[in-house]
Task: inverse folding
């Protein structure tokens, strides 16, 4: 039997040992770790053990994992080390530890979707993207914390089987959701990269809160086969990584047509890893400076980061002009809600009827809204959506890339319920989930409170190469040496605040 370990989150498990963040392999980017493995300077076995030690050290505080299988991971790392020793690596992800959100099915490792509700999926099924990652040698460590069923209302009530994930930059603060453990794991180095799912911003919001890169490709670019559905017409898996280069490497491994996914794009996905150094000199950038709200409601550090990004693009030769979304970001969300809630209830109706007493409040309330949603409202929203997709796509006929806020504020304290909900509902996640365009959350700076400040970039359908090239240029401007949260600082803040549950 595999050694499947469930996270315990006990205070006594916390160590304050000698985890020198700058030297620890768990702090490396995917690309840097891969280069060290290629050069014979780092063994995949050593890399995995560093990640497992980081889990032991930090997960009692940040709760990034729900479960992991160390025996299987060690076996995969050993096989990767043997290939590396023979100079026969399967690609840049061979030997790289990763983890997936717990709504993504993994053969031999239970998927609970963060819920007490009994799950009925076939345990022999691997999600297509997991199979593709394992086929190139990536080492699956385990399943990451999530909002229940990977969805909810934006509120966190701490009524799920395990505590909510915490932000490694400050454990008293929120991670964003619903890929909460995915964002926390990458920021902390408890995984070198993670896969989340994005229905209304659920890859990009945790990335923004946790100071890492969250990439939602064009709808249909990455297979959803083997992933618990949330909203059929929005759900998009995507990588959460330390760097833009890492996102390109992961995307290249998992993107592409899958006949088992009925909405999979039947077109070859353009490789991205080799396209990151494209010059910005001819780039047309549409700068959406606010979310259609008053400047006073936007965090000034986010506005400053956006202005700095615009100037950096201009300095690189891009043509940057201020534009507006066809409608305010909040109106995209208003159109999304009837579709999202209705589809979610139609998917999970049986679970609600049979097991609503086992569900947390946030999931239960969302499904109840969907249960009472009128068909007329759902159909009206679909008609509005069709028009809005065309209007938004016409903007990308005029610009190559859109620069805009990801959120209106930085990650709030987890005990400020109103702020936690506002962080989610007041974001600009919905526009590109609704339209299906690719979008990316990029860390820019760290504010005076030590919390990450993020911006967002978006591009036209199937224009991931342009999007990531612009993001790469801005990452080199803001963060020439991207870093994960310092474990010693995380532990010190935890001990001062008493944030473990």
Result:
């Amino acid at each position: 039997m595999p050694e499947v370990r469930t996270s315990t989150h006990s205070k006594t498990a916390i160590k304050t040992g000698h985890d020198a963040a700058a030297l620890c392999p768990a702090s490396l980017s995917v690309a840097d770790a891969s280069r060290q493995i290629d050069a014979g300077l780092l063994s995949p076995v050593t890399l995995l053990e560093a990640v497992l030690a980081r889990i032991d050290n930090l997960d009692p505080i940040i709760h990034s994992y729900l479960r992991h299988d160390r025996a299987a991971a060690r076996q995969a790392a050993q096989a990767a080390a043997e290939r590396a020793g023979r100079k026969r690596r399967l690609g840049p992800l061979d030997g790289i530890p990763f983890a997936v959100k717990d709504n993504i099915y993994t053969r031999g490792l239970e998927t609970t979707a963060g819920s007490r509700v009994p799950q009925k999926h076939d345990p022999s099924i691997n999600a297509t993207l997991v199979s593709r990652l394992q086929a190139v040698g990536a080492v699956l460590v385990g399943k990451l914390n999530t909002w229940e069923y990977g969805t909810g209302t934006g509120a966190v009530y701490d009524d799920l089987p395990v505590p909510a994930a915490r932000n490694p930059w400050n454990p008293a603060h929120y991670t964003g959701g619903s890929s909460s453990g995915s964002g926390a794991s990458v920021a902390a180095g408890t995984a070198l990269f993670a896969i989340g799912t994005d229905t209304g911003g659920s890859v990009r919001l945790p990335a923004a809160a946790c100071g890492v890169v969250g990439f939602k490709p064009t709808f249909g670019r990455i297979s959803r086969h083997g992933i618990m559905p949330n909203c059929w017409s929005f759900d998009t898996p995507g990588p959460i990584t330390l760097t833009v280069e890492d996102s390109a490497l992961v995307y290249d491994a998992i993107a592409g047509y899958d006949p088992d996914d009925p909405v999979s794009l039947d077109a070859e996905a353009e490789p991205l890893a080799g396209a990151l150094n494209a010059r910005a000199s001819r780039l047309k950038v549409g700068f959406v400076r606010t979310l259609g709200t008053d400047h006073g409601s936007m965090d000034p550090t986010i506005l400053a980061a956006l202005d700095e990004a615009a100037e950096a693009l201009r300095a690189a030769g891009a043509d940057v002009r201020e534009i507006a979304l066809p409608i305010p970001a909040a109106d995209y969300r208003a159109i999304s809600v009837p579709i999202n809630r209705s589809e979610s209830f139609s998917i999970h109706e049986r679970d609600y009827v049979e097991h609503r007493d086992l569900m947390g409040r946030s999931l239960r309330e969302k499904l109840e809204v969907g249960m009472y949603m009128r068909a007329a409202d759902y159909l009206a929203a679909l008609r509005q959506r069709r028009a809005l997709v065309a209007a938004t796509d016409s903007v990308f006929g005029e610009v190559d890339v859109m620069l805009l806020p990801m959120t209106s504020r930085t990650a709030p304290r987890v005990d400020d319920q109103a702020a936690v909900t506002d962080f989610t509902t007041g974001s600009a996640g919905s526009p590109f989930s609704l339209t299906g365009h690719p979008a990316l959350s990029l860390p820019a700076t760290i504010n005076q409170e030590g919390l990450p400040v993020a911006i967002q970039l978006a591009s036209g359908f199937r224009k991931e190469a342009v999007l990531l090239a612009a993001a790469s240029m801005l990452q080199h401007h803001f963060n020439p040496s991207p870093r994960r949260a310092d474990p010693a600082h995380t532990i010190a803040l935890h001990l001062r605040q008493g944030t473990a549950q």
